[in-house]
Design a protein that fits this description.
Layout: H1 7-12, E1 15-25, E2 27-31, E3 38-45, E4 47-51, E5 58-61, E6 64-68, E7 74-78, E8 84-93, H2 100-104, E9 109-112, H3 120-131, H4 137-159, H5 166-171, H6 175-184, H7 192-199, H8 203-214, H9 218-235, H10 240-246, H11 252-263, H12 267-275
Antiparallel strand pairs: 1-8, 2-7, 3-6, 3-8, 4-5, 4-7, 6-9
Helix pairs in contact: 3-4, 6-7, 7-8, 9-11, 9-12
Length: 276
């Protein structure tokens, strides 16, 4: 049975979407990062000139998508008369800056919708719902946007479209089982030989490939994953004494040391800063 490279990630760090526009965009439209969310824009028809600060403008021809996993200022310019038909949603990865999926994605991604071959029925339904005024429209479209994002992540893994980081590791046929194992059982006392065996590689080959592809050593990645899980559980109100064994530490002191090493502050100080 094939491994599910996204299951544990999305179980801990889900993504949600909220429709905020469906229809024609004509002229100049600015989208501000101060809204605090990422955005997914689906161009059903038309041409959009996309502007980012400090970068050359690029033209996106529909049908296409433009994905901003994190807040980023951008401007769309379309023909003042013909415009372009877009359906747009705010996107929130649970956990914000600590979400490992959002952190692993490029700041801006665009591709033709035809590239998402398995997603065409979902896209057709999404556009139909977006441009019709039917009861329950908002809830249906929001869920369909979330499905599109998961399909996009799946396509990126299948195509190996990310150069480095977590998603690049998950796209690697041998490294992926080791990453999935860590994601699925963070409390286990993983050793380098165990992880290398799950990848079907020698210890030295596994360690070198992991560092080259993911950008850090396996042990460092595991420690960061555990801290990410601890942060997520802290935000949910779990006490430290219950979090520590769930993420692979023998007690609060050990978790606090790892947390401070990764974040520069104690778990309680981090949580207070998040609340503020």
């Amino acid at each position: 049975m094939p491994i599910d490279r996204l299951d544990a990630l999305l179980a801990h760090f889900s993504v949600s979407a909220r429709l905020f526009h469906a229809g024609a965009l004509c002229g100049v439209h600015d989208f501000s990062a101060t809204q605090g969310t990422g955005q997914l824009h689906l161009v059903r028809e038309g041409s959009v000139r996309v502007h980012h600060a400090g970068a050359r403008a690029r033209v996106v021809e529909g049908p296409a998508l433009m994905f901003y996993p994190r807040p980023l200022d951008h401007r769309f310019v379309t023909d003042e008369k013909r415009g372009a038909d877009l359906t747009c949603a705010h996107v929130v990865f649970r956990g914000g800056a600590i979400n490992p999926i959002a952190a692993a994605l490029p700041a801006f991604l665009t591709l033709p919708l035809a590239r998402l071959t398995d997603t065409q029925p979902v896209l057709e339904l999404l556009f139909r719902e977006a441009f019709d005024q039917r009861c329950g429209r908002q809830a249906v479209i929001d869920r369909l946007f979330e499905v599109v994002i998961v399909h996009l992540l799946r396509a990126m893994l299948d195509d190996g479209a990310v150069d480095g980081g977590l998603l690049a590791g998950l796209a690697h046929p041998k490294l992926a089982p080791a990453l999935v194992a860590m994601h699925g059982d963070a409390a286990r006392e993983w050793t380098l030989p165990q992880l290398a065996a799950s990848a079907g590689m020698s210890r030295s080959a596994f360690a070198a490939a992991f560092r080259e592809r993911v950008g850090m050593a396996p042990g460092e990645y595991l420690a960061r994953w555990r801290v990410c899980l601890a942060q997520d559980l802290l935000r949910k109100g779990e006490p430290l004494k219950r979090i520590a064994p769930r993420v692979g530490y023998g007690g609060i002191a050990a978790l606090s040391r790892a947390f401070r090493q990764a974040c520069g502050v104690s778990p309680r100080a981090w949580l207070a800063a998040q609340a503020a």
